[in-house]
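Dear Dr. H.,

I hope your travels went smoothly. While you were away I took the liberty of generating a structure for the chain from your last submission, since the lab meeting agenda had it listed for discussion. I wanted you to have the full record in hand beforehand rather than looking at slides cold. The sequence, exactly as received, is reproduced here:
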Amino acid sequence: MQAAVMDPGEEPPSMLWGLDPIFSAFARLFVSDILQMTESTQVPGIYFYNWHPIYKVDVLGTVVYKRERDDFFCYGVDDGTGVINCLCWKSNLLKEEEDPRTSGAAHSDAALGGFNPVAELKKLRQNQQKRCRLEIGELLRVRGRVKTSRQQREIMASTFYKVDDPMMAVQIAWMMEVPQLYRQFYDKRFQLDAAGSSAESSLCKATNLIKDFLKQRLVTKFRPYDVQDLLQPLIAARLQTTATEQEPVAGPSGRQQLSHLLKEVLQVLQNDGVVYRKVKSQDEVYHVTLQDKDLFIAVKDVIREDSRREKYAESGCHVLHILSAVRQRYSLNLTKAALELVLKTLECDSDIVSTSDSHYVAL
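The corresponding predicted structure, in token form, is as follows:
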């Protein structure tokens, strides 16, 4: 994989790095790309691959050299594309020396067949030493921060361990997954301006536009054609942008795009419980949940009546019980999301109170 060479003057502002999901993840890059990444001129210790800000990586490779000091191991890891130095700090458990007296007591207790915490701790120490003390030719996985020391790129490991892979299953899976990550994420340049014109952004804008309209006008119910004109400016702006950036191509018309966007918005509003369809018919009528006074009365009646029953007097009515009762009494098509929005509003108004998770009683 070859990263594009970046002009230092083209670095995205550091305050926007968090918008890139790769920035918060351990990037599974090849060693050759880690060695060639460009270091940021704004913040030392941050590197860029295809304009993606990266400071921590995840590497799997073979140990080709090793060095041990009192406080750390130093392993050279080769993943087939290059070799990088990995500085792996020892834990306190590894640095502790074994006490001969406790060792003898541990053996005596073990011989008697009893449980000895000292013996179990010794086994834990031995297992950790086996996982952290690697020999040349063994497989090592390292996660940590990238650092440049004395003009040499290395990894300051936060997690490292030996990988037992006699059938090479782990290595094969790794070499199949990493190129896929490159194709889907790393090799796609990080562009801040693309987010504004994305489909998700258009859907979010359209959803907020309809929500604001319903709230400001105190709409109780509506049909799709009552609100579709509100989305027309978004479609017009999208068509204008497409016409200026691309040559004319065959695609959905403005009316088709408007219909599709409206359908997506209505689905989002239903998923959030903002609206629901009281009766499903060809005449699509959507009721605004917070403006449906009859729904609020039905929910309060169910909770008040059932809270008096011995079965629910102490713990309260479960949300699924309330949903079933309201569906039978008021609307078979009421969604759980809409009911939860009603319950939250009633609780804020001190009409009901939650006794425990998802249980309610009337006041």
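Two observations you may find useful: The longest helix spans residues 199-217. The chain has a mean pLDDT of 84.

With kind regards,
E. W.
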